[in-house]
Amino acid sequence: MNINLVQQRLLNDFQRGFPLMPQPFAQIASDLDTTTDEVLDTLRHLSQQGVVSRVGPVFQPNRVGVSTLAAMSVPEPELEKVAAQVSSFEEVNHNYEREHDLNLWFVLTAPDQTALDACIRRMESKTGYDVIVLPMLKEYHIDLGFRMQLDGCARLHEYSENLADTGADQEVCATAENQNSDLIAAIQLGLPLVERPFFEVGRALGLSEEAVIRRIGAMQAEGIIKRMGVVVRHHELGYRSNAMMVLDVPDDRVEAVGWRLSAVDCVTLCYQRPRHLPEWPYNLFCMIHGKDRDDVLACIDDVINELQLADLQRAVLFSKRRFKQRGAVYRKR
Questions:
Q1: CATH of span 5-61+146-232
Q2: What is the mean pLDDT of each run of 10 residues along the chain (333 residues)?
Q3: Distance (Å, whole) CA 28 – CA 41
Q4: What's residue 175's pLDDT?
Q5: 7 and 154 in contact (C-beta within 8 Å)?
Q6: Domain 66-135+239-325, CATH
Q7: pLDDT at 50
Q8: Nearest Cα to 148, choosing from 288, 8, 318?
Q9: Which phi and psi (to 5°) does residue 39 adopt?
Q10: What is the pLDDT of residue 68?
């Protein structure tokens, strides 16, 4: 897709550090030397095109509700039907076909472990297939900010990193997660693209604009919100190939290898998950995106050679079809 300079900057520079102030888009417009209307119109257009998933929070996994990666092995003739059945569950936010005997991969999110377990049982009953559950054990790099090679000089803005600017305090932080269920439900799929989004959110909840900003700042301080900003879809931006590289790393090496992988530019996610023997011997997962398949394979070759990982059993699961992709629903509205 052809994008102009304002679009480039919005997509690349504002994936985190969204300004927590009454008129955040005016602040962004000032930084871009443009108008608030142009910023909002551009974000609305990019959202309609599917390039922007939302503008809002990315929550820390398992701090709001619980989530897990899961997989199924589905015969090819049944795959589309079963994928549609899996996608029909509200708890599923991502659902992909990947190149492997375990060929259907999806992410589930629920309010608590009991609800998650019940969802998996219902899914197995509905589809007739076993679900392999692979919850995250440790994250090494899971920010989900997607750095793009657009102009070669992008920077990240961090208006909200200084808690003094948000008014957040420890008393609010200590109770943020428990007291903000309605607020989480209101913002989990994105802020309204209006001049004063926090005012609109607060009006719907019976909260002041200041209270909304303060509570979001508190959730950031607590680490409940991992980042706040523009959430992009890589495929629509031309990064049409992605693979999940998985490794079987000895337990005494997994920590060191995980941190080294997380520092590689082309690795966008890296986390430890349990093995599920005998069909799944791998315990370290990383995601790699590229313009095409060769781009991804070149990155993998570089990673294996530079980090001296050739001795480890591994598999590369390229994404084939995207059946569902949206933000996780942590709380029902």
A1: 1.10.10.2890
A2: 80 92 97 96 93 90 86 98 97 96 96 95 98 95 55 40 36 50 92 98 96 95 91 74 96 96 88 96 94 92 94 97 83 62
A3: 13
A4: 44
A5: no
A6: 3.30.70.3460
A7: 87
A8: 8
A9: -60, -50
A10: 96
Residue 147, CA atoms < 13 Å, CB-side half-sphere: 13
Angle 188-197-65 from CA coordinates, rounded to 5°: 15
Structure tokens at 74: 């589905």
Cβ-based neighbour number of residue 98 at 10 Å:
19
Q: How many CB atoms lie within 10 A of CB 130?
A: 13
Query: Which tokens is 292 given?
Result: 């095409």
Cβ contact 257:247 at 8 Å? yes
Residues of the chain with CATH 1.10.10.2890: 5-61+146-232
Dist CA 220 CA 126 (whole Å)? 38
Which residue reads 């609109």 in tokens? 200
Residue whose tokens read 């998985």: 246
Residue 219 · residue 20 · CB < 8 Å: no
Per-residue model confidence (pLDDT) at position 87 = 97
The ranges of the chain annotated as CATH 3.30.70.3460 are: 66-135+239-325
Q: Dump pLDDT digits (tens) for 270-288.
A: 999 999 999 999 999 999 9
